[in-house]
Amino acid sequence: MKDDASFSVLTGNNIDARPVKAGGVIFREGDEAHELFVIKSGEVRIQIGNRTITELTADCVFGEMALIDNEPRSATAIAITDVELVAVSEKQFLFLVSQTPYFALKVMRVLAQRLRATNKTFG
Protein backbone atom coordinates (compact mmCIF):
# COMPACT_ATOMS: atom_id res chain seq x y z
CA MET A 1 0.00 0.00 0.00
CA LYS A 2 1.25 3.48 -0.84
CA ASP A 3 1.83 6.19 1.73
CA ASP A 4 -1.32 8.09 2.75
CA ALA A 5 0.15 11.24 1.25
CA SER A 6 0.54 9.64 -2.21
CA PHE A 7 -1.47 11.23 -4.98
CA SER A 8 -0.58 8.62 -7.61
CA VAL A 9 -4.25 8.27 -8.59
CA LEU A 10 -3.85 11.64 -10.31
CA THR A 11 -0.80 10.63 -12.34
CA GLY A 12 -2.04 7.59 -14.27
CA ASN A 13 -0.82 6.79 -17.78
CA ASN A 14 -3.76 8.49 -19.48
CA ILE A 15 -3.25 11.79 -17.63
CA ASP A 16 -1.59 14.67 -19.49
CA ALA A 17 1.65 15.73 -17.85
CA ARG A 18 3.52 19.01 -18.23
CA PRO A 19 7.30 18.62 -18.68
CA VAL A 20 9.69 21.02 -16.91
CA LYS A 21 13.44 20.81 -17.48
CA ALA A 22 15.88 20.60 -14.56
CA GLY A 23 16.40 24.08 -13.15
CA GLY A 24 13.10 25.35 -14.50
CA VAL A 25 10.91 27.50 -12.27
CA ILE A 26 7.43 26.03 -11.92
CA PHE A 27 6.12 29.05 -10.03
CA ARG A 28 7.55 31.89 -7.97
CA GLU A 29 6.70 33.18 -4.54
CA GLY A 30 4.07 35.90 -4.99
CA ASP A 31 2.65 34.51 -8.26
CA GLU A 32 -1.10 34.14 -8.65
CA ALA A 33 -2.22 30.54 -8.23
CA HIS A 34 -4.69 28.74 -10.45
CA GLU A 35 -3.65 25.11 -9.95
CA LEU A 36 -1.87 22.66 -7.73
CA PHE A 37 0.58 20.09 -9.05
CA VAL A 38 1.22 16.39 -8.60
CA ILE A 39 4.70 15.14 -9.48
CA LYS A 40 4.41 12.30 -12.00
CA SER A 41 8.19 11.90 -12.20
CA GLY A 42 11.29 13.76 -11.06
CA GLU A 43 12.12 15.94 -8.07
CA VAL A 44 10.99 19.44 -7.09
CA ARG A 45 12.49 21.87 -4.56
CA ILE A 46 10.21 24.20 -2.61
CA GLN A 47 12.01 27.27 -1.31
CA ILE A 48 11.35 30.61 0.33
CA GLY A 49 13.97 33.11 -0.71
CA ASN A 50 17.18 31.08 -0.94
CA ARG A 51 16.14 28.70 1.85
CA THR A 52 15.03 25.20 0.88
CA ILE A 53 11.84 24.20 2.67
CA THR A 54 11.52 20.70 1.25
CA GLU A 55 12.32 18.48 -1.72
CA LEU A 56 9.54 16.37 -3.19
CA THR A 57 9.45 13.31 -5.44
CA ALA A 58 6.92 11.38 -7.53
CA ASP A 59 3.31 11.23 -6.32
CA CYS A 60 3.71 14.24 -4.02
CA VAL A 61 1.42 17.24 -4.31
CA PHE A 62 2.46 20.88 -4.00
CA GLY A 63 0.97 24.29 -4.62
CA GLU A 64 -2.26 23.31 -2.87
CA MET A 65 -2.18 26.04 -0.24
CA ALA A 66 -2.84 28.87 -2.68
CA LEU A 67 -5.91 27.09 -4.05
CA ILE A 68 -7.33 26.71 -0.57
CA ASP A 69 -6.90 30.30 0.60
CA ASN A 70 -6.80 32.16 -2.77
CA GLU A 71 -3.61 33.96 -1.75
CA PRO A 72 -0.49 34.34 -3.92
CA ARG A 73 2.12 31.57 -3.92
CA SER A 74 3.92 31.42 -0.57
CA ALA A 75 7.07 29.81 -1.98
CA THR A 76 8.97 29.13 -5.19
CA ALA A 77 8.96 25.67 -6.83
CA ILE A 78 11.95 24.65 -8.95
CA ALA A 79 12.58 21.43 -10.87
CA ILE A 80 15.67 19.71 -9.43
CA THR A 81 15.63 17.12 -12.20
CA ASP A 82 13.57 16.97 -15.38
CA VAL A 83 10.03 16.58 -14.08
CA GLU A 84 6.59 15.69 -15.36
CA LEU A 85 3.81 17.50 -13.53
CA VAL A 86 0.07 16.94 -13.53
CA ALA A 87 -1.73 20.24 -13.05
CA VAL A 88 -5.01 20.20 -11.12
CA SER A 89 -7.12 23.32 -11.66
CA GLU A 90 -9.19 24.88 -8.90
CA LYS A 91 -12.33 23.52 -10.59
CA GLN A 92 -10.86 19.98 -10.72
CA PHE A 93 -9.65 20.33 -7.12
CA LEU A 94 -13.13 21.32 -5.90
CA PHE A 95 -14.65 18.43 -7.84
CA LEU A 96 -12.19 15.96 -6.29
CA VAL A 97 -12.88 17.30 -2.80
CA SER A 98 -16.66 17.09 -3.30
CA GLN A 99 -16.61 13.60 -4.82
CA THR A 100 -13.86 12.09 -2.68
CA PRO A 101 -13.82 13.30 0.93
CA TYR A 102 -10.68 11.21 1.54
CA PHE A 103 -8.88 13.35 -1.05
CA ALA A 104 -9.59 16.43 1.07
CA LEU A 105 -8.24 14.64 4.15
CA LYS A 106 -5.06 13.70 2.28
CA VAL A 107 -4.53 17.33 1.25
CA MET A 108 -5.11 18.46 4.86
CA ARG A 109 -2.56 15.91 6.07
CA VAL A 110 0.01 17.29 3.62
CA LEU A 111 -0.70 20.82 4.85
CA ALA A 112 -0.38 19.75 8.49
CA GLN A 113 2.91 17.91 7.87
CA ARG A 114 4.35 20.92 6.06
CA LEU A 115 3.22 23.32 8.77
CA ARG A 116 4.87 21.16 11.43
CA ALA A 117 8.08 20.93 9.39
CA THR A 118 8.10 24.69 8.80
CA ASN A 119 7.53 25.34 12.51
CA LYS A 120 10.57 23.18 13.31
CA THR A 121 12.66 24.93 10.68
CA PHE A 122 11.71 28.50 11.59
CA GLY A 123 10.61 27.98 15.21
TrEMBL record:
Pfam families: cNMP_binding. GO terms for cellular component: cytosol. Gene3D superfamilies: Jelly Rolls. SMART domains: cNMP. Residues 13-114 form the Cyclic nucleotide-binding domain. One of its GO terms (molecular function) is DNA-binding transcription factor activity. This is Cyclic nucleotide-binding domain-containing protein. It comes from Bradyrhizobium lablabi. The lineage of its organism: Bacteria, Pseudomonadati, Pseudomonadota, Alphaproteobacteria, Hyphomicrobiales.
